[in-house]
Write a structure and sequence with these properties.
The chain contains 16 helices and 15 strands. By secondary structure, it is of the alpha/beta class. It has a domain at about 60-285: Type I PLP-dependent aspartate aminotransferase-like (Major domain) (Aspartate Aminotransferase, domain 2), CATH 3.40.640. It has a seven-stranded mixed β-sheet, with helices on both faces. Helix 2 (about 60-70) runs antiparallel to helix 9 (about 280-310) and helix 9 (about 280-310) crosses helix 15 (about 430-445). Mean pLDDT is about 95; it is low at about 10-30.
Length: about 450
């Protein structure tokens, strides 16, 4: 199940609980034998309450959006500029440009750093498809560097071996809302004179040494899609201190018309090949009101995730993701666990997920391997790639062989478990429920294996 399907099912499952009117007949810890028996074996669920709905909205927010609609100024104008100024300030950069979605932010950033046909970009295999599509849509070659399986992030130790004379950039992805090892990545980039574009689409307000992601590399890209910690429905942003780059991005996102240092006359037409990926005023209005909750909700997720990680760290066979020492805040768009079936009496990951869902805890297995998916082969078969690259570059079997990522495959196929960010907006007792659910499954894993084999 992919991330978006999982989130949809999570929200749907919460609604089903509401309709069915399920109530918790026991509080965990009371002297009832069902409390220590997993729900999949007939015991009581660990968690019966509704998880927070997402995206969240309050009636009080509506006036800001209605004000924009009534103004009849719907294309980018003052409200968009206000949102951009506030997002730049929040991230800690000089500039921000809002665009229609995070994918467009990545595509525009790659394009305006003049990365294209003949260039290579180092990327992680454990990411959403948009990271790789942004490289391919600019005609460049993605080069996969494997992940550190403890952190789910691109492994800096694997990056340097992938650098060639054609390497132009690194796109570290702060996947799941956990910061990549930016200190080591930036050192490698500076040593080899490479551009760093941070894919922070899942990592709003995550921090490395107190500095927010999206302000560390040459540029940062964000997504405000519905599932994100900062939801607008669709939306994205580019952040940077590089004024010339940001002027180029502005021109690119507005049909290539001149802007700032990108001189010319609008009446004279476009000065570069561009797109039309402008933000709307009502998107910006939604964003401005969502900003009022972001820091508070981020701190709640961080506190709850830290609490849960401490609760479960000694349970055999289950481990929270490791944070790099310089991480000062992870924002847990998705809370990841590493699962070891051998420590659960041979209970497979799918059986564990089934058991945990039975306890009232939504969960999924996360991403499937990305670098083997057919969209890359399709790009290689396109006219652009056929004209630019030689046969060896476009030999898909050879590409797969050179881009093997065994740590990523192990995580995808055997070990990863996800919980969505809205679960971590609850109170500490709900985190206790999750921990108790895992403990029950661990203590009765052999019984569950026997039951599910029948």
């Amino acid at each position: 199940m992919d991330r978006r399907k999982f989130i949809t099912r999570t929200i749907g499952g919460a609604s089903l609980l509401a309709v069915s009117g399920v109530n918790n007949p026991y509080a965990w810890g009371q002297s009832n034998s069902d409390n220590k028996l997993p729900a999949i074996l007939g015991g009581a669920k660990s968690h019966h309450d509704m998880w927070p709905e997402w995206p969240a909205w309050k009636t009080a927010y509506e006036e800001k959006v209605l004000e924009v609609l009534r103004s009849r100024v719907w294309s980018r104008a003052k409200v968009t500029a206000e949102f951009e100024a506030k997002w730049a300030e929040l991230i800690g950069t000089k500039r921000c440009l809002s665009v229609v979605n995070g994918t467009s932010a990545l595509i525009a950033s790659v394009s305006q750093f003049n990365i294209g046909p003949g260039d290579e970009v180092i990327v992680p295999p454990y990411t959403f498809i948009a990271t790789i599509q942004a490289v391919l849509l600019n005609g460049a070659l993605p080069v996969f560097a494997d992940i550190d399986p403890r952190t789910f992030q691109i492994d800096p130790a694997k990056i340097e071996a992938k650098i060639t004379s054609r390497t132009k950039a690194i796109i570290p992805v702060h996947i799941l809302g956990i910061p990549a090892d930016m200190t080591r990545i930036m050192a490698i980039a500076r040593k080899h004179n490479l551009i760093v574009i941070e894919d922070a689409c899942q990592a709003h307000l995550a921090e490395v040494k107190g500095k927010r992601v999206g302000s560390i590399g040459d540029a940062g890209c964000f997504s405000f899609q519905t599932s994100k910690n900062m939801p607008i429905g669709e939306g994205g942003a580019i952040t940077s201190d590089n004024e010339t780059f940001m002027d180029q991005c502005f021109s690119y996102h507005n049909l290539g018309l001149p802007y700032g240092t990108q001189v010319g006359s609008v009446s004279g037409g476009g000065i570069r090949v561009g797109s039309k990926i402008r933000f709307t005023e009502y998107q910006a209005a939604i964003g401005l009101v969502q900003l009022t909750n972001l820091e508070k909700d981020t701190n709640t997720r961080w506190d709850n995730a830290q609490y849960l990680s401490k609760k479960i760290k000694d349970i055999p066979g289950i481990a929270p993701a490791t944070l790099y020492p310089e991480t000062t805040k992870a924002v847990y768009h998705l809370y990841p666990l590493l699962y070891n079936k051998d420590k659960f009496k041979g209970l497979t990951r799918n059986q564990f997920l089934e058991s945990l869902r039975a306890e009232g805890v939504p969960c999924s297995s996360g991403y499937t391997p990305l670098y083997t998916q057919p969209f890359i082969k399709a790009a290689f078969e396109s006219k652009l790639y056929q004209k630019v690259y030689d046969k060896e570059d476009l030999d898909y079997r050879n590409f797969i062989d050179k881009n093997q990522c065994p740590m990523n495959d192990r995580i995808c196929n055997e070990e990863a478990i996800w919980m969505t960010q809205n679960l971590f907006l609850e109170n500490k007792s709900s985190m206790d429920d999750i921990a108790n659910a895992i403990e029950k499954i661990q203590a009765n894993a052999d019984k569950i294996v026997k039951k599910l084999r029948k």
